[in-house]
Amino acid sequence: MTTMLDEEDVFALGPVGAVAAVRQALARGLDPDGDVPRAVIPLVHGQGLLMPSESGGWFGVKIATVAPGNAARGLRRINATYLLHDSATLTPVAILDGVALTTLRTPAVSVAACLDRLCGLADAGGGLRLVVFGAGPQGEGHVATVRAHVPVADVTAVTRRGGPVPGWADRHTSVDGAETAALVRRADVVVTATSAREPVVDGRLVRDGAVVLAVGSHEPTAREIDSALMGRATVIVESRETALREAGDVVMAMREGSLAPGSLVTMADLIGSRAVAPADRPLVVKTCGMAWQDLVVAVAAYRRKGGAPGERT
Asked: Is the whole model's pTM more than 0.90, yes or no?
């Protein structure tokens, strides 16, 4: 029988469970470079995306659509469904709300990559100060996921024009607001979760030791982070191949001579203690979203719902 997991069932896993699923998968040897690249299908009114992955006795695929015109219709820009299979029989065992899955796993991947640095910052200075560019679901999700792991003292939302303060923030400023630069200078964590195609943060303002979580871009011609920051930071990516193919923040910094391909550090290397991120440099976590992340978080949500326990082989 196929189990249905709606939005509530997926979110019930929670940020801590999702981060743990990502870190455990990498610690057990999952190789992100073994993933099949996502297929992007041009559609009349947007894009279709197919994201398949197999690992640990499971196969899953997310089918997502991106419709830029939906905002004007009062509809969601992104829609998605996830189908999870048992690898041994290739029988479908669960259908999950793909939007909830994406909303949960994206910040979980960001935090999984920098959890040790976040804990170190919290131990050194108490509650962390966050500046979040973007007031959408991913901005909110990143704040919730950081809060679930370390104390947070202050949150600023930054958007193009400012506006009402979101329920998850302490203030809301505009990109060009007088106080925004000062807030970025003192921030422990900067999140960029926008649809911008040009940098939204002046990289010279980010302090040494801060964490930057860049999640808005997954195209080689769009970026949220400038070369000034990428050149002085330790840059963490999900996969070198994926970053060089899809991460505009990485691709354009390399094209401009600020970042060397060999300097990229993968999440697997960092979590597996095969790499060290110097504490005196900014830490940029640049993610594009990969199918293995959906898979491991979907499996964790399915197990929590009452699916098969233990790891399959």
From this structure: yes
